[in-house]
Design brief:
Elements lengths: L4 E5 L12 E3 L8 E4 L5 E4 L1 E3 L2 E2 L6 E2 L4 E10 L2 E10 L2 E10 L1
Parallel strand pairs: 1-3
Antiparallel strand pairs: 1-2, 2-8, 3-4, 4-7, 5-6, 8-9, 9-10
Length: 100
């Protein structure tokens, strides 16, 4: 499968599901953690270990423009897919693209 990055969204997912972290291969692919803040900014998050945010170190803004595909397990053997569109690190839209 290879390496991936993790991302979480402050806003609700378009299909109403909630996730701690989703995976993406559209950024660094180096097990880096990101989050989209409540004001729709993409941030690189400092971590102290697997999925544990280091709140003592500030998150860094990320100047990403493009479409990011994200995915997460939604049921046994079922994966939900989402597309997030960014311009200069600002989330423009978040859509649910299906479950496979």
């Amino acid at each position: 499968m290879g390496m991936f990055d993790s991302i979480r969204f402050s806003q609700p997912m378009p299909d109403g599901r909630g996730f701690d972290w989703l995976q993406t291969k559209d950024l660094e692919n180096d097990l880096v953690y990101y989050e989209v803040s409540a004001d729709n900014k993409l941030l690189k998050v400092a971590t102290t270990g697997y999925g544990t945010v280091d709140y003592l170190n500030p998150a860094e803004p990320v100047d990403f423009t493009g479409v990011m595909e994200c995915y997460a397990l939604v049921a046994e053997h079922r994966i939900g897919y989402y597309k997030a569109k960014f311009l200069d690190g600002n989330l423009l839209s978040l859509t649910h693209t299906g479950i496979w």
